[in-house]
Amino acid sequence: MTKDLSQSFTARDDLRTEPRAMRYVLIALAIAFLTIFVVLPLALVFAQAFSRGVGAYIAALGDPEAWSAIRLTLSVAAISVSLNLAFGLVAAWAVTKFEFRGKTLLISLIDLPFSVSPVISGLVFVLLFGAQGYFGPWLRDHGFQVLFALPGIALATTFVTFPFVARALIPLMQEQGTQEEEAALSLGASGFQTFFRVTLPNIKWGVLYGVLLCNARAMGEFGAVSVVSGHIRGETNTMPLLVEILYNEYQFVAAFAIASLLAMLALVTLVVKTYLERNLDEGLRPSGD
Question: Residue 216 in contact with residue 269, Cβ under 8 Å?
Fold first, then answer.
């Protein structure tokens, strides 16, 4: 055991061919880069939000328009995360547990939102559900409104956040293999029993990880939502859209107050993400280690 550890440390030291001074310079550059492009912007957001005191900050967040944006953002996030959670579980189960024609195409479609601009995805929904779109006249005749309302915003956000849950689960389930499911089935368990009693407990941290990333992206989405929302004050503005509107109207304290909520969400997401990644790593680590 001691010999193995010494060999491991020796191999690790062999990889460190740079001089110590060079390593310090690289670390300092990385820290400086993160400070300039991450830490300082976040600090400035909070500084601007509280620039006129706590009272002005609370008043900005208590504005009815701000509350409307917060409620809409939470509603859209809840809808899109729920839909993507259901799809992500089904897609990951199908991709990792079965062999079928079109698997490669399915994986490519899952990754499609990563390669398509959010603005383009918003325009797609305008072409589908707009007044001159494919389904627009039928929807208008039957009293349904998709664009410039909650359904359109939820659809656009769901498309943009489409891959996160599936992409968090597919590698994890591939790593775990199918042995435990096969053993459960051989003992007489049904497909649903196998999923809920064997598969789901093994992937619970991956599910939470994917939901976390999906929720963070849903709350911060701007491009696709901007196209389909219509920017109706107090009705269809999410938090990112409201930040832009308030900033353009020179209401800087209110704009940065809303932005600070999004920044706090990012910080909480970072902390929870680190915790979930640690649990994922422990879950994938062999039991003998």
Answer: yes
250-254 contact pairs (CB < 8 A, 24+): 251/60, 252/48, 252/51, 253/48, 253/49, 253/51, 253/52, 253/56, 253/57, 253/60, 254/60, 254/63, 254/66
- What are 115-163's pLDDT values in tens digits? 888 899 889 899 888 878 888 888 888 888 888 889 999 999 999 998 9
Angle made by CA atoms 206, 207, 211, in degrees to the nearest 5 = 115
Nearest residue to 168 (alpha-carbon basis) of 218, 202, 215, 205: 205
Measured distance CA(144)–CA(227) in Å, rounded: 19
165 is written with which tokens? 């849950």
Q: Find out whether 122 and 158 touch, Cβ atoms under 8 Å.
A: no
Cα end-to-end distance, the chain, whole Å: 12
Distance of CA 257 to the CA centre of its chain: 22
Nearest to 110 by CA among 155, 174, 153, 164: 164
Q: Model-level pTM?
A: 0.82
